Amino acid sequence: WKGRAVIGGATGFMAGLTGAGGPVASIPWMVLVGYSPIHAVALSMPYQIATSFSGSMGNMMGGHVDWMLLPALCAVQVVGLLGGIAMAQRVSAPFLRKVIGALCIGLGAFLFLRQAGCF
Q: Could you tell me if 61 and 55 are in contact, meaning their C-beta atoms sit under 8 angstroms apart?
């Protein structure tokens, strides 16, 4: 439990500090400590709902929500979510681990290069 508490606390702290969703950090950690990718994703969903709701409330109160864009963005994300769920159930755990790793590396490289002023 101690390891899980550390992962949860560190993930929550990083989500609050950076605004990046908790699953961005928690899924790779859970896979690293032995959870299957599909279980790591499933475990991160309730957390993502709670943090997204609380973050959204803060953004709404601050006037930072584009209400015209919101419905279309939500619709596209739901379609993507359903497609991702269907695909995750059909591919192997080792392949999902590689996809998660590539996503983390790609996102990290993108953020690093953007911060460095490359684009």
A: no
